[in-house]
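Q: Hand in one record:
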Amino acid sequence: MKQFSMKAITAVAAVSTTLALGGNALAKVEGDTIILGSSISLTGKYATNGLHTQRGYDYAVKMINDNGGVTVDGKSYQLAVKYYDDESTPARGAQLAERLIQQDGVEYMLGPYSSGMTKAIAPVSEKFGVPMVEAEGASRSLFTQGYKYLFAVLSTSEQYLATAIDMAAAKSDDPSKVRVAMAFEGDPFSMDVRAGVVDKIEQYGMQVVIDDQLPADLSDMSTTLTKVKALRPDILVISGHSKGAATAARQIDEMKVNVNMIAMTHCEAAKVQEKFPKASDGFLCPTQWVESLSKSDPMFGSASEWNTGFKAAYPSYTSVPYQSAQASAAVYVWKEAFEAANSFDKDAVRDAIAATEMETFYGDIKFSENGNNIAKPMFMRQIDASGTYNLVETADQLTYPRNVKY
């Protein structure tokens, strides 16, 4: 894989923010450059992840441009991105999206960071019939609005723990006998996660023995865990954001709760493997992407090769966040769609995006009629006794360190 300097990528970003559209050129293409637009959080509460996202976009732009660019009607074009800082404010994001489309003539959008910002911007791109490929808005509700111009490469929120239920079914001789305990915070994200778990439970005919709604800012779940000890479920699934994960791990340890399979969101954010190493041994934790994934594509190579190249471009990263990986995948969708459409007509390109079906270093991508990616599950990693996260791609790789006998 080619390696290149931070200076080179910074130059691309600088060019992308200063391109002017004028003369008789088409609004969406300036000379031999295809211009994508993005309102992105570079200041405010989402700034850190906004920067991860921008760097993922810029890395993909650089890679694609260095490997021949985008070919449309026999001509090679370069990609560039025009950014505005939305300051992590939904109203500002919507305003800037309209500016990109109405004033700057952008007809191809990359998404912002977060579900909230995407919810603010999606109606704008929809209003003007401008396709948007987003990488950072996981809320299921984004894809129940009937939008025709919104597409997401990432797994949506209802998928976060659904894979754990699939694995529990695969490990059982009779999935209908699997007994499930659920504990979810009552916020929209966790309720989306719960909905995906419930769908899977119903699919397999499993038995729900506990279904608790947890309070926000969760600091005590001993009532739920007391029931878990008494009812001895086969699997315990939890979603309560970072504080909920930390509370669960701490009290699982304190109360000596033994369940063969425990799956929860926000393991890494809560640092459960560091703070509660004994309790977290065996925890299953969802992630959008991991560098050891056995996926690849002709542009970026394998997941590991993309990871190595990105770290060479941005040496400050010791561990690359998944936000950057999925941002690169979104840009790659644009390249493939332009070439499949063989056109710059935004509706033709929109139809090409909708028809996308491809394997990438980030995972498989195929969009439902609602625009969400239905080909990529959430990937599960299991924490081992040393605190290491190990990718578990099949149920055969799953271990039960507690080895509870019922």
Notes: Residues 47-66 form the longest helix (20 residues).
